[in-house]
Design brief:
six-stranded parallel β-sheet; single chain; alpha/beta; 318 residues; 16 strands
Length: 318
């Protein structure tokens, strides 16, 4: 049975991944940690061990790994794209500090390591349509720079030290559990909250801005499936393109209006987010993930919209 440590368990991915990991491996085998344990959901707190941990402090991670005989780490610690641009050094120090600590601990304790990458690892010189698995990566954000660096370092630790590092390049992630945390694609989460609350939604991106997206259940499956994949079949490791759908603001607005016909969206341009979005792929080619470890998302825009509106209506009592 695996013993897993989730770093950043209070974040958007961690809030759902932690509970799914506990379903798969058992509550007692998944340790949830966060810099601020108050961010952890009550469900996480009630279902298993929860610990405070500053992932930029290697000694704290190492202590947990040693005490609980951890053999797998999910490193979800990062400052998201738009937030990191407002404080680049914080974005670099948190993202790279946590990753380097995890890589060294994984090397020393022979621990498998998952660290998500992102569409942010690409830049304006990357082919925007059907973005290849292996292509130019010259991002223009500090978030993207940390993701490319993370991919390279993770591959280096695999090749040089045999550390079992694996990763996926997540597109924009849409969740009904944890509020968004400062990412460029967060509008695709915020719009559902506005629709359920009956509020006018102010979209920060321009009409026609295509972006890759994925519903969180598919993202969680991808994170677990790649770590369970047969290593002999992995040609790539860090990092696989994965995606489920791509749309612009008008498309998600139109889909929501099928269920909420009185819902109103207006445009309120955010220059920083637009600049970042314009440098990211319209849609990625995820054929390598499908071929090498069987990636297969279950949700498209219509199916996700039904589920998002249902779940949020219940959660918000609307």
């Amino acid at each position: 049975m695996k013993k897993i440590l989730v770093l950043g368990a209070g974040g958007q991915i961690g809030s759902e991944l932690t509970m799914r990991l506990r379903e798969v491996y058992g509550n007692g085998n998944v340790i949830a940690s966060d810099l601020n344990p108050n961010r952890l959901t009550q469900e996480i707190k009630d279902s298993g061990v929860c610990l405070p941990c500053d992932a930029t402090d290697a000694k704290q991670i190492a202590q947990i790994v040693a005490d609980y005989k951890i053999d797998g780490i999910y490193n979800l610690v990062a400052i998201l794209s738009a937030t990191a641009e407002k404080n680049p050094m914080l974005g670099w120090n948190v993202g790279m500090g946590a990753l380097l600590n995890c890589l060294e601990i994984a090397r020393e304790y022979k621990v498998a390591l998952f660290t998500p990458s992102s569409i942010g690892a690409f830049g304006p010189n990357t082919p925007l349509d059907n973005t290849p698995q292996d292509t130019i990566q010259r991002p223009r954000t500090i978030y993207g720079v940390t993701k490319v660096t993370g991919e390279l370092l993770s591959d280096y630790y695999f090749e040089r030290f045999g550390v079992d590092t694996r990763s996926v390049r997540f597109p924009g992630l849409i969740s009904n559990v944890c509020p968004p945390g400062g990412g460029t694609t967060d509008y695709a989460v915020d719009i559902y909250y506005a629709a359920v609350k009956g509020e006018t939604f102010e979209c920060p991106l321009k009409k026609g801005t295509l972006l890759d997206m994925m519903y969180m259940p598919d993202a969680i499956d991808a994170a677990i499936d790649i770590m369970e994949a047969d290593p002999s079949k992995l040609i790539h490791r860090n990092s696989f393109n994965v995606t489920a759908m791509h749309f612009d603001p008008e498309a998600i607005y139109a889909e929501i209006r099928k269920h909420k016909p009185n819902f109103v969206m207006v445009y309120k341009h955010d220059e920083l987010k637009q600049k970042i979005a314009d440098s990211w792929p319209n849609y990625m080619d995820d054929s390598c993930a499908r071929a090498e470890w069987g990636f297969c998302p279950k949700y498209d825009l219509p199916k996700m919209t039904v589920d998002m509106l249902d779940k949020l209506s219940k959660r918000l009592n609307k």
